[in-house]
Specification:
It contains 10 helices and 21 strands. The chain has 409 residues and is of the alpha+beta class. Strands 5, 6, 7, 14, 15, 16, 17, 18 and 19 form a 9-stranded mixed β-sheet that branches. Helix 1 runs parallel beside helix 5 and helix 1 packs across helix 10. It binds flavin-adenine dinucleotide. The site of flavin-adenine dinucleotide has 41 residues, from helix 1 and strand 19. Flavin-adenine dinucleotide (FAD) binds next to helix 1 and strand 19.
Length: 409
């Protein structure tokens, strides 16, 4: 395959310059031996959405259903990510994490996590409540799991190096290119934006919050819609950052696909509290001052039958998240269950992120990563957390699927 010799702009175009798109582009170069891979993104730089607005945690793999794509790809992804960050000199700190049960109802759920950890081959130590302060002097609880392999990393730094390698390998990144239409004609895919068109042989869709729309533009038949869940953060004030050494998490509610409000010390030493999970009325409605949700997004969301099924299924938890989002008192109460010394003046607002969570028309939130194919295209339809952790392995998985498509008669 060679783009320039055939009058095409590239052999493969990848829509989306987040960590999944850039990792996939590199994997296509490395695994399929294709040089001319062009990544397109609508923003003025890579990593402007989920990849640049997350907790920066390299998850250990303890949470995921044994045998799932998440469990498998996280395991492969962590090792690769740690090695590559060492090569590149990107900040990567294997700081470890505590998952703390603060009520008796949470103890069986902590046990279930321990079972999953064993099944997924993730080492951890069990701590009775009185030993929690040995790891986190200011944390309190009835019991905890200490997972030493959990790390924090600079994800935008990873994307920067992936993009640099992509260009060195003969590919490119074009920013300011919002994909508005895709047409598959014979053995060519034409990708259109307001500023022009790009032609290639194959397309990979890693468009995160818009991946369902890009899939439909390419003619994919999929039942899946993206539901945007905003994750709001607070930052601990300078006088309080000493209350947390590394990462302190609650025991997650197994009926809800998010991990609960936690405390994370990032690679820059700042400590973030959050994220919650609030339904956002726009896919990029971060809730900054003056930021209004896109009217089309809101209309589409409220008209989605799946959302009403979802509301019935998760109504109580969703409502609680919404109330907590409006109430600093409730947020503080949740944080203080883990670290009681955090005071009302210690929480400062910090930028939010929005999760791209796929939902079926029956209102089921997809738990696992999801991929699909349509003529000449591979689509990443669900890559929420821990997709940043697993990104290098997801890239390989997508390249393998593209290789199968190329090889098919
Ligand atoms: C609050 C929050 C906390 C999280 N914490 C963690 C964590 O600690 N650890 C972890 O492993 N994961 C975490 N995640 C999940 C992780 O951030 C994502 O799984 C990962 O970043 C997904 O990467 P992506 O490349 O698929 O998406 P994105 O980073 O969102 O990239 C998609 C790109 O596609 C572009 N795009 C979209 N539509 C178009 C279009 N039409 N034309 C051109 N370009 C387009 C966008 O501009 C964007 O750059 C978190 C996510 C959130 C929101």
């Amino acid at each position: 395959m060679s783009g320039t010799t055939t009058g095409l702009d590239a052999d493969v175009v990848v829509v989306g310059a987040g960590i999944v798109g850039t990792a996939t582009a590199r994997a296509v170069q490395e695994r399929l031996g294709v040089r001319e891979v062009l990544v397109l993104d609508k923003e003025d730089a890579p990593a402007r959405h989920q990849t640049g607005r997350n907790s920066g945690v390299v998850h250990s793999g303890i949470y995921y259903a044994p045998g799932s794509a998440k469990a498998r790809l996280v395991k492969e992804g962590i090792t690769r990510l740690a090695e590559r960050c060492a090569d590149w000199g990107v900040a990567y700190d294997r700081c470890g994490k505590l998952i703390v049960a603060t009520s008796t109802e949470e103890l069986p759920r902590l046990e279930e996590l321990a079972r999953r950890g064993r099944a997924n081959g993730v080492p951890f130590d069990r701590l009775p409540g009185h030993r929690i302060p040995e790891v986190e002097p200011h944390a309190r609880g009835l019991a905890a799991l200490h997972v030493r392999s959990t790390a924090v990393v600079d994800y935008p730094g990873v994307v920067h190096h992936l993009a640099e390698e992509l260009v060195d390998g003969g590919g490119g990144v074009r920013t300011g290119f919002r994909v508005r239409g895709i047409e598959v004609r014979g053995d060519t895919v034409e990708v259109r934006s307001d500023t022009g068109a790009v032609r290639a042989r194959w397309l990979v869709n890693c468009a995160g919050l818009h991946s369902d729309r890009v899939a439909r533009m390419a003619g994919a038949r999929t039942d899946v819609h993206i539901v945007p869940f905003r994750g709001e953060y607070q930052e601990l004030a300078a006088g309080a950052v000493g209350l947390v050494r590394a990462l302190v998490y609650p025991v997650p509610d197994p009926r809800w696909p998010f991990l609960g409000v936690h405390l994370t010390r990032g690679v820059d030493g700042s400590v973030h509290v959050g994220p919650n999970a609030v339904l956002a009325l726009g896919r990029e409605h971060y809730g900054d001052p003056g930021d209004r949700p896109d009217a089309g997004d809101t209309r589409e969301l409220l008209g989605d039958r799946g959302l009403w099924h979802l509301a019935r299924r998760y109504g109580t938890t969703g409502a609680r998240e919404l109330v907590r989002s409006r109430s600093r008192r409730l947020l503080l109460a949740d944080v203080r269950r883990l670290v009681p010394e955090v005071g009302p003046g210690d929480l400062l607002p910090a930028p939010a992120g929005i999760r791209a969570q796929a939902m079926t028309s029956a209102g089921e939130l997809l738990d696992d990563f999801a991929f699909a194919s349509s003529p000449r295209c591979v689509h990443v339809l669900n890559a929420p957390s821990p997709a940043a952790t697993a990104s290098l392995a997801i890239g390989d998985e997508v390249a393998r699927r593209l290789g199968d498509l190329v090889a098919a008669p």
